[in-house]
Amino acid sequence: LVQARDLELTVPGAYDPFGPLVTISSFNHTLQVISSKQRPRKVIIRGSDGNDYTFLLKGHEDPRQDERVMQLFGLRYSIVTLSENSGLIGWVPNCDTLHTLIREYREKKGVMLSMEHKVMQSYVNDPEQLSLFQKVQAFEAALEVTKGNDLQQILWLKSPKQC
Hints:
It is a single chain. The protein is an alpha+beta fold. It folds into 2 domains: 24-90, Phosphatidylinositol 3-kinase Catalytic Subunit, Chain A, domain 4; 98-157, no CATH class. The protein is built from 5 helices and 6 strands; from the N terminus they run E-E-E-E-H-E-E-H-H-H-H. A hairpin with a 2-residue loop joins strand 5 (79-83) and strand 6 (86-90). The longest helix has 14 residues, at 132-145. It starts with 23 loop residues before the first strand and ends in a 5-residue tail after the last helix. One of its GO terms (biological process) is negative regulation of macroautophagy.
């Protein structure tokens, strides 16, 4: 992608029927890997108008599900399906991932980030070897180790007004 220049493709989500056509001029040479389960990438596309357009490149999951969630919450960011299990999502600036929020909270509280995972591993090294019932038991045992309210607590602490 780095070598692709001056393409005749429009920048996803940049089409304006009343304005000039913004095409892909180039791709940024670095992709930032986001620390979350699926490890999506942050992609920056330079448009023919000189502006940078940032997207989240997701794989291994259907981007149409993200589109449905955005519709549910009334959010409007461009989503371009590239294949059945990959796509580009318009970048939302100044946001944290759930993983980042939970990691930050647990670091402040001195709780190991992978606490639940360690408990589940105590059942067996490879959880895929467990039956569905055993997986549920391991999961429930892992939930008993922590309060399970890390996300709630960090969102409360980060909220602008605490009552």
